[in-house]
Amino acid sequence: MFGSILAYITLRLLDQNAEGGAMQKGRNWILAHGGVTYITLWWKFLLSILGLFNWYGNNPLPPKILLFPCAFPIHPGQMWCHCRMVYIPMSYLYGKRFVGPIIETDLPLRKELYIVPYDEIDWNLARNLCAMSFPFYPHPLTFICVRLHIRKIVVVTISSRAVDGDTWSHRQGCRSPMNPA
């Protein structure tokens, strides 16, 4: 579904006629699988920037988390470097609710790719929809709590080693592209 939506929107933005044989088949297939509301998070995000998906249909990526202290367990500075490189710009765009210029193709695309009219979509419900073809397994709350608890133990251990003069002292600060450790 991901590739089908990508191809369809790309061809439509390149002024391909929506009523052609392959385009019609592609649109019918997309609609038969739930429409654009069943795409993955990153596509929802990209379509929001293009003006084809409402920002309220995205899971929050709050940029204010960047203002938390670096010791905060879910601070982006504690993430793997590739996650940071994606999260920070995405959270900025989410915070701004950035939408590019609406072009003449956008409004017909809103009609073509949704089963329900665009103005009647329940965006809060669409936020967590995912197509059956995508393996989506919600994480249980106990997993998140255990992970945060383990994270606290690791931070305390690293801090105590740094006080003892161990070589772990470089890990106390936030990670950055210049200090990925």
UniProtKB/TrEMBL annotation:
GO cellular component terms given for this protein? lipid droplet
The record's Pfam families line, in alphabetical order, gives: SQHop_cyclase_N (PF13249)
One annotated GO molecular function is: oxidosqualene cyclase activity
Q: Which GO terms describe its biological process?
A: triterpenoid biosynthetic process
Which Gene3D superfamilies does its entry note?
Answer: 1.50.10.20
Q: Cite the Squalene cyclase N-terminal domain residue spans from the record.
A: 3-125
Concerning InterPro entries, the annotation shows: SQ_cyclase_N, Squalene_cyclase, Terpenoid_cyclase/PrenylTrfase
Q: Which family does it belong to?
A: Belongs to the terpene cyclase/mutase family.
Q: What is this protein called?
A: Cycloartenol synthase
